[in-house]
């Protein structure tokens, strides 16, 4: 039997307690997530402890447990986490609640310091806040090696920061260590191209960078990107003091506190990465996409054309040979004789230079069978097409439409002749097939003087590289009107077609529509050239450096960058490096600012190419490899600001 509660005060307190509990339950059910405009957690996970503890010596355990103060996750551990010395067998790296668990599958080396660099891979589970530059170390010996070296890796051809390259050290100073043995200590470049190698013992080292395609930690494939430093690296350290500033607000300093730290050197190593030229010569592909043309593709350019012998046709003077790249690596063979190109399968012997197993160029002969992919139409199919064309003409006649009974198929030509032409530009005619012959007297160029068209001199001829392109050049007068004309039948193609009449009018731009840019350059080699680039780092124009000057005339208004190539061998192009011969790639420098050029404006800039370190030369506007940013944090801040504005 239940006894009545005789104390009214206790009954009242009990009722309040129940109401409070119900209120909490209801609030929790209605308050999932952050309230609108609330603050987000921007703090990264905090390290608590590790087994074995950081800096442990005499360690024999291959399983590492690192604990944090909140639940964590790992972002791209295979890409961002790097263990030194490098592990041949892939380690297991997993997030487990509030911990990271690492299992090393390689046998531990004696008397060796092991370091694990996480970069920014460790993040809190909810907001994704990264713990930056977190590292862990232990030793299998009696002491921890604590030296560090750091620096940057840049692409040698354009000074772009290179992300994800391994950077490694060798105490073995043999020239063959890099090509036969794994790195002894290793780090990895981040999105700024920056690297740190930790856990180094005192000594003298060679340093290299490597895009390790086969993950063996040494250079054994010619397609891998590499970098090397000519000088030896000697790690050192010294005590130093830095000033930490505490701000009252964004404008007022509260306190400046001196803090001691250890300065590890060198911290300014700069490696210029490159890919060696790979000259393995072989026939990559042969194809016959059209009946009257077949193509040969080689893996590298050669010095001489291959020799071709027809087996079911006479190859003597049978082709017009086109090199569309300007080099002997891609060849198009246009077949002159219709008797030959009507053969369904052309059989031939091809003799060319081939790279053997000793990397020597030797002659090699292959037998090729090139079948046409375009089947020749039968007479019955052609008759059906003629009947269809006649029916179409009859239908158009009944509708009252004009029908051209004597239609002529002309040789197609693409005419480049813009209505508003730059003062440095020229007219181009591009054809779909090689030209058998043309009549130069049928080509006209006239200038309008007052109201009268007067002929003006010009130069016309076949392009030096592109077989099916012809160029017309003239001394254009600014702000003048011109007329370009070609009589019908002036150009005859290889297969019997001829061109229709061409006539186009155009006007040359005024000089005040352009700007001029002049560089006074110091510190370059005797042979150098400057490439002017646009906002996407694409080359706009190239000029040689003459007596310390690089001058660019008739530039369109806009933003420009500039890079200088020290052309050591004077061949007019940037050349890569060669590790076997200890040859670094040719030096490249960037003018450290993007220049905005206006119309009708001349700008002169002084340029000391070595004034700034290479890693600080290329303007951020021109870089394609941008530093990683915490996009989630930016998005959260935008959401929070928007929510606060709605209040």
Concise structural overview:
The protein has 647 residues and is mainly beta. The chain has six helices and 44 strands.
Walkthrough of the structure:
The chain contains six helices and 44 strands. It has 647 residues and is mostly beta strands. It has four domains: 47-242 and 268-273, Immunoglobulin-like, CATH 2.60.40.1220; 283-371; 413-509, Immunoglobulin-like; 514-622, Immunoglobulin-like, CATH 2.60.40.1120. The strands form 13 sheets. It has a five-stranded mixed β-sheet with strand order 27-36-34-30-31, with no helix packed on it. Strands 38, 39, 41, 42 and 43 form a five-stranded antiparallel β-sheet that branches. A four-stranded antiparallel β-sheet has the order 1-2-6-5, with no helix packed on it.
Summarize this structure as a short list of keywords or feature phrases:
single chain; 647 residues; mainly beta; Immunoglobulin-like; 4 domains; five-stranded mixed beta sheet; five-stranded antiparallel beta sheet; 6 helices; 44 strands; 11% helix; 40% strand; globular; disordered N terminus
Over the alpha carbons, how many angstroms does the gyration radius reach? 36 Å
What share of the residues does DSSP label as strand, in percent?
A: 35-45%
CATH topology of the largest domain: Immunoglobulin-like
CATH architecture of the largest domain: Sandwich
Name the helicity range.
Answer: 10-25%
Class from secondary-structure proportions: mainly beta
Counted up, domains total 4
Overall pLDDT:
88
Main sheet: which strands, in order across? 27-36-34-30-31
Distance between the termini: 57 Å
Number of helices: 6
Gross morphology is globular
- Main sheet? 5 strands, mixed
Low-pLDDT runs: 1-38
The tally of strands reads 44
**Can you tell me the CATH class of the largest domain?**
Mainly Beta
